[in-house]
Write a structure and sequence with these properties.
Rossmann fold, phosphoprotein, 10 helices, Sig_transdc_resp-reg_C-effctor, Arc Repressor Mutant, subunit A, WalR-like, alpha/beta, DNA binding, disordered N terminus, 6 strands, six-stranded parallel sheet, 2 domains
């Protein structure tokens, strides 16, 4: 007697600017017999378009893509589709990077060096309606100090500090006075609890803030 399978496959879309990574991830997921690939995107704009058109159960989103990156794409999708389940895949584990991704509406945050079994656990978790953070990241977020309270101008100046610019050069590039630059730098040092410009850059780099500046 023929019995029809009642197994429902989980639909996925994969967004990554590296074709081999997309192909490898798709092959591994489909080899389990539990997933069906609806589409692939090479950047954030394509990911947004594919999600709106295909409505996958899960969208696997690379954080760092040219143009519209994973965090911005996640934010825009979630604004239109609050129920969207989006997992951010990233090489960055700084608390500010993770915080921005989760604030944008990501359902999960997974490091790219994670084993395949962890990806499956992450997908199962978000399908069940829960948030997922890679091991160790929850503690980092819990101990997070509020570097995200840096203003847009402070983020801009922090990025200039990281390149070794002098106060005068920063003032010229930013179109503000040297005194204003010093004021912003003092605010940055206070907010990051840093004793010097060099320490501020080091702390910001460790926490992933320079990728966001």
């Amino acid at each position: 007697m023929h019995t029809e399978s009642t197994t429902t496959l989980t639909t996925i879309v994969i967004a990554d600017d590296h074709p081999l990574i997309r192909a490898g991830m798709a092959s591994l997921l489909q080899s389990t017999g539990s997933f069906v690939l609806l589409g692939q995107a090479a950047d954030g704009e394509q990911a947004i378009e594919l999600y709106q058109r295909l409505r996958p159960a899960v969208l696997l989103m690379d954080m760092s893509m040219p143009g519209c990156g994973g965090v911005e794409a996640t934010r825009r999708i979630r604004q239109q589709h609050p129920q969207a389940r989006i997992i951010i895949l990233s090489a960055h584990e700084g608390d500010e990077v993770v915080h921005r991704a989760m604030q944008a509406g990501a359902s999960g945050y997974l490091l790219k060096n994670a084993p395949f079994a962890e990806l499956l656990d992450c997908i199962a978790c978000v399908l069940a309606g829960r948030k997922y953070l890679a091991p160790g990241l929850s503690a980092k977020l819990a101990g997070r100090v509020h570097g995200s309270d840096l203003s847009t101008r402070e983020h801009e100046i922090l990025a200039h500090l990281a390149t070794g610019m002098s106060n005068k050069l920063i003032a010229r590039v930013a179109g503000i006075g040297v005194g204003t630059v010093k004021f912003h730098i003092n605010n940055i040092l206070a907010k990051l609890d840093a004793a010097s410009r060099t320490e501020a850059v080091m702390l910001a780099s460790r926490r992933g803030m320079l990728q966001l500046a």
